[in-house]
Design goal:
The protein has about 270 residues and is α+β, with helices and mostly antiparallel strands. Helices cover about 40% and strands about 30% of the residues.
């Protein structure tokens, strides 16, 4: 019964607005406390922002940089609140993490022109490593439009025995919502989430390091998901609104239909002659 309940809960969460995920998730946990751990581990929540006290830079919070009640900053590699023996990447992986944060900080600025990004890496046993790239952009509310973009890219890297090739597995989730409130169009809320997976082999070399390969996959995946969101959420909504909304008055539409009917009748009579 618990598996069926979990499937129903996950299906319900996929259909609810992403901007209300935290409230909806808390409500589900109150209804079925036994599913608490499964729901928290299965449902991606909107990313939260914190500020590194040492570097004075913003970073994103998630389960991948959390240890207990503390979160590790990718800029200083320290936990807030401070803890002893917190999980940190190996020295080699920490160097890659620094490169990844610098690279995706540039990527975020070029594609989103603002927002916050963070990248976290961790070692895998017996070999390889994994990581996550987080990007968050919140609308400033200008022009009476509010919105938020959250993207979570979890990847796993397994190097081949030769060390010259590696297999990259990527799972990406995007949560997007928009809210407008204009005098001409009224209030409208639009939101949803999308998850996609990809796997690809790349050559690892000085000209094609791990960060470049991961960046290529993340960029390609985000472009595809952005296009899908545009076609599904915005394109479909536009088609529906255009079908159900009449720009002209009902009297004008009736006059137009009567004119078409008279014209069709005249053509039919002319054809019979």
């Amino acid at each position: 019964m618990s598996e069926q309940q979990l499937d129903c809960a996950l299906d319900l969460m996929r259909r609810l607005p992403p901007q209300n995920i935290e409230d909806n998730l808390a409500g589900l946990i109150d209804l079925v406390p036994a599913l608490c751990e499964d729901l928290l581990s299965s449902i991606d929540q909107p990313l939260k922002i914190a500020k590194d006290k040492e570097s004075k830079r913003d970073y994103l919070l998630c389960d991948y940089n959390r240890d207990g009640d503390s979160y590790r900053s990718p800029w200083s590699n320290s936990y807030d609140p401070p803890i002893e023996n917190g999980n940190t990447p190996s020295e080699r992986l920490r160097e890659l993490e620094i490169q990844a944060n610098n690279a995706f900080d540039t990527y975020r600025e070029l594609y989103f022109e603002g927002g916050v990004s963070s990248a976290y890496l961790w070692d895998l046993e017996p070999a390889g490593f994994a990581g996550v790239v987080l990007i968050k952009k919140v609308g400033d509310g200008s022009k009476k439009i509010k919105g938020c973009w959250d993207s979570i890219h979890v990847f796993e890297v397994q190097e081949k025995s030769s060390g010259r090739n590696a297999t990259y597995k990527l799972t990406s989730t995007v949560m997007l919502w928009l809210e407008t409130n204009k005098e001409g169009s009224g209030s409208m809320k639009l939101g949803g989430s999308l998850t996609r997976q990809a796997e690809q082999d790349f050559t690892v070399s000085d000209s094609s390091p791990h960060i470049a390969n991961i960046g290529h996959m993340v960029e390609d995946m985000e472009n595809k998901m952005r296009s899908t969101l545009n076609e599904i959420y915005f394109g479909k909504t536009k088609d529906i609104v255009n079908d159900v909304r009449s720009v002209g008055s009902l009297a004008a539409e009736k006059t137009k239909k009567d004119m078409f009917h008279d014209l069709a009748s005249a053509l039919n009579q002319r054809a019979k002659k």
